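It is worth pausing here to work through a concrete case rather than discussing structure prediction in the abstract. The textbook approach is simple: state the sequence, then state the predicted structure, then interpret. We follow exactly that order.
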Amino acid sequence: MRSVLVAAAAVAVFAVAGSSTAVSSAGGGCKKGTYRSLVLVSARTGAIDRAFPNPNGGVNVVLADGHGGWFAAGIFTCIGRIRTNDLAHLHADGTLDAAFKPQLPAGRQLDNPDDSPLALGRLGTTLYVAGSFGVVALDATTGALRWRTPVSGAGSATRVLALAASKQRVYAGGDFSNVGGKAHPSLVALSPRTGRLLPWRPSKLTAKPLFGPIVDIGALALDRGRLFIGSDGLKSVAGKPRDSIAVLDAQSGRLTSWTPPQAHGRSLIGDVATILVTHGRVFTAGHDGFGITNEQTGALDPLSHETGGYRFAVSGDIVYLAGNCRNSLSVVERQPRNNLAALDFAAGGRVTRWAPNIAKYTCVDDLAAGPDQVIVAGSFTASPPN
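Step two, the predicted structure:
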């Protein structure tokens, strides 16, 4: 599982031997993708920008750059007719930023999903990128490498799946067991300036019997001094039951009392692969669950029974919901939607008229929002997905 941070969900905005990106205006070797995987949508009307360039592969994660543009990461070698491997910066009009040349770790297999960037986070002028290579910090303008912290583990796929950044710490979660050569399973804190492992340890995490021994942390979000962690394999924290989600004190790592309602020992919100904390609510979702809970108490919000989603984004008072092809979002408060919807919290969380219709089959992997536009990544096809 993986996760991406969204602006208001955390303190940060939430994506080496040389550059892994080669930029060429000639576009040689850039074959058209078999399906559309990146779409720009008007935040006001839902209109699709059909001229927005498409990658020739899949996009795992997108992130607003804070200036109207976007970072996009996944498995691709071109966006439109411009060559760029796995990580790109796009201006607001969709043109590729040729000055951004990200120095991702060398030796990656560009067609391997586990070697592609799986999480992005931004704090000021630094872009944090995570994957099987660990965590790297890049200059958000040039892509120059600032630091890299590798991870390792016993499994064949050892990855950092989620990031959350503040001025004090960069939290990294995943299915790793070692960081920088030291035993630190699942969740660590790094120095934002150097990437060094900080003396911060969370309360003991215990995995469910079928998921152990490592709890794969797939979602993180920071809010008001608390760190929300999500994993469908999480059973308990510090010996106390916590099904799929828990909240830690961000400074000490200790477990807090926050927990969503349960029935028969299971959380009513299901598994948790993504978390957004905003407007006094915690939006969570996974492959088999969805919930909106109270940020302070964990109680289920009435909106939880009227909406749904798999990924979330926020800009101002508007919270965007997206479904994928497994967790479809076809109706929101009795209004038809094609896997994309929006709630206006200036109006108490009422569903808006925003209803983009990207394609007959709209399977969303991630989305990010700005004041004027929403970028949506996934698989958008006229025929059913495989």
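Step three, interpretation. The chain has no helices and 35 strands. The two ends are 19 Å apart (CA to CA).
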